[in-house]
């Protein structure tokens, strides 16, 4: 059944809609980025190239059963003597199940919140009070990419994950069809950023994504992505990039940049 029959969008009234809600929480850090790159989103070593090693694990409300994977956030700690007003921009690559903090950052991202010369001082604290907001991901001159996972077995099973997703959105549904066909079949979220199907169309493949955008959502159509001879372990250019902004409900909004 086509995707538009099986997804539900949460509508937000325009009176409370905001694209930059500021939240307050605490953040800690992992001493090794490898913990976050090998995390629940399934990015593996590719995560290190998503945000210069500025990675984060988020609590379930941010991870959203994998839909939050690849989301970008800006955090800054509230110690104005120790920390800068700009803070640190991170990409979500893992699930944080520690209820003491909403985020656990890579040490590089954690130190980036500090003023010049104070990065070691912030590490000594271990946990800091922070404020954060969702921000658009930016991958200049880089389209949304599709990586065919090694567990794929042509022609009966296909598993993929999306990389370099721009904008401020979440992928909440994926359809696949042979190029030139309108016979769409849905893919299921296996875990994190990985989607799969055991009903693989023959020939070159196109994808139709449902993403959160504006007050509800939209379709993004990648018309020619995988060639007929697609191979496991290879990354393919989708030919499109997502730049939409999804709204959330809060008051007041933060309309400016943190610099």
TrEMBL record:
This is Expansin-like A2. Residues 156-238 form the Expansin-like CBD domain. GO terms for cellular component: extracellular region; plant-type cell wall; plasmodesma. Belongs to the expansin family. Residues 38-142 form the Expansin-like EG45 domain. Keywords: Signal. Residues 1-17 form the signal peptide.
């Amino acid at each position: 059944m086509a995707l538009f029959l099986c997804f539900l969008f949460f509508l937000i009234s325009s009176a409370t809609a905001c694209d930059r809600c500021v939240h307050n929480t605490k953040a800690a850090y992992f001493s090794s980025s490898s913990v976050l790159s090998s995390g629940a989103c399934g990015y593996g070593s590719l995560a290190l190239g998503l945000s210069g090693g500025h990675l984060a694990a988020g609590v379930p409300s941010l991870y959203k059963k994998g839909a939050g994977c690849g989301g970008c956030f800006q955090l800054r700690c509230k110690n104005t003597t120790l920390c800068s007003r700009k803070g640190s921009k991170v990409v979500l690559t893992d699930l944080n199940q520690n209820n003491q903090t909403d985020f656990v950052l890579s040490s590089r991202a954690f130190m980036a919140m500090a003023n010049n010369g104070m990065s070691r001082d912030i590490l000594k604290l271990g946990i800091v009070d922070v404020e954060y907001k969702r921000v658009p991901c930016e991958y200049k001159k880089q389209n949304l990419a599709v990586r065919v996972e090694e567990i794929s077995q042509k022609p009966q099973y296909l598993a993929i994950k999306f990389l370099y997703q721009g904008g401020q959105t979440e992928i909440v549904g994926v359809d696949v069809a042979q190029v030139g066909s309108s016979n769409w079949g849905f893919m299921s979220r296996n875990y994190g950023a990985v989607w799969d199907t055991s009903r693989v169309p023959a020939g070159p493949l196109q994808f139709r994504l449902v993403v959160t955008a504006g007050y509800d959502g939209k379709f993004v159509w990648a018309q020619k992505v995988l060639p007929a001879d697609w191979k496991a372990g290879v990354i393919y250019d989708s030919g499109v990039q997502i730049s939409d902004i999804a709204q959330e409900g809060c008051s007041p909004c933060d309309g400016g940049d943190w610099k």
